[in-house]
Amino acid sequence: MDRFSAEPATGPAPLFSAVYPDVFDAGECAALRALVDEGLSEEAATKAYPNSAEARRTQVAWVPDEPDFAWVWSRMADLTATANREAFNFRLEGFDEQMQVARYGAEKRDHFDWHVDRGRTGIAARRKLSIAIQLSEPSLYTGGALQLFSDGHLWEAPRAPGTAMVFAGFVPHRVTPVETGVRHSLALWVHGPDFV
After folding, report:
1. Is 52 a member of any domain?
2. What is the CA radius of gyration of the chain?
3. Distance, CA of 4 to chain centre
4. Domain with 166 in it: what CATH number?
5. What is the CB-side half-sphere exposure of residue 76 using CA atoms within 13 A?
6. Which residues 6+ apart lie within 8 Å of 81 measured at CB?
7. Regarding beta strands 17-20 and 164-168, do their DSSP bridges make them parallel or antiparallel, or are they unpaired?
8. Angle formed by the axes of helices 70-83 and 26-37, nearest 10°
9. In terms of residue numbers, what domain contains 131?
10. Is residue 7 domain-resident?
């Protein structure tokens, strides 16, 4: 059996990853979902794989670097410091890219195929930690699972809104096609010097 198509495990996070529940409350999740739902979105691109149009199908909006959203950046800085201290101990330098809110809809079976966030060149080559935060109630969609492949096992992230999945930029992961409804998530990357 192909390990990438096996039934995903749940439970404790796999190697090079950590889970943090309740990073955002319901109102904060709604405020972030509104960014992509109010016509501020664009077709997603992939910096690590710019020529792979079929690898990712979703709409994205960027979290503005404005006072109204300072709480998001502050929360992510705190989460990054905690996660790095508790689970990674990487040398990090900060956020070099904007945060992205993604909308995965069932209309086109939106998805993001297997990939790693760390690229070979440019800014993606500096991605050391990835953070993905669920923004939608799991009852509002089917499919759309965030899955990681680590320790030789397929693992599925929790779906509770406000839950953050923090993982090393080299961990393979995907979002499976959304079958019904809409899934929203926040993604950002923490940058630093090369692994040595």
Report:
1. yes
2. 16
3. 19
4. 2.60.120.620
5. 24
6. none
7. antiparallel
8. 120
9. 18-191
10. no
Is 56 exposed, middle or buried (CB count within 10 Å of its CB: 0-12, 13-18, 19+)? buried
Which residues of the chain are under the pLDDT cut of 50? 1-5, 47-49, 51
- Which one, of 174, 173, 166, lies nearest residue 150 by Cα? 173
Structure tokens at 22: 């309740």
Pairing of β 141-143 and β 100-105: unpaired
Rounded CA gap, 108 and 110, in Å? 5
The residues near 190 (Cβ < 8 Å, ≥ 6 apart) are 80, 84, 92, 94, 95, 127, 128, 129, 130, 131
For the segment 32-62, what is each residue's pLDDT rounded down to a tens digit? Answer: 999 988 865 556 555 444 545 578 889 999 9
Question: Which stretches of the chain are DSSP H helices?
Answer: 26-37, 70-83
Q: Minimal CA–CA distance to 69: which of 188, 184, 160? A: 188
Number of domains in the chain: 1
pTM beyond cutoff 0.85: yes
Burial tier of 97 (Cβ tally within 10 Å: 0-12, 13-18, 19+): middle
3 assigned to some structural domain: no
CB atoms within 10 A of CB 4: 11
Q: If you write DSSP's letter for every residue of 35-87 in order, what string do you get? A: HHHTT--EE---SSSTT-GGGEE-EEEEPP-SGGGHHHHHHHHHHHHHHIIII
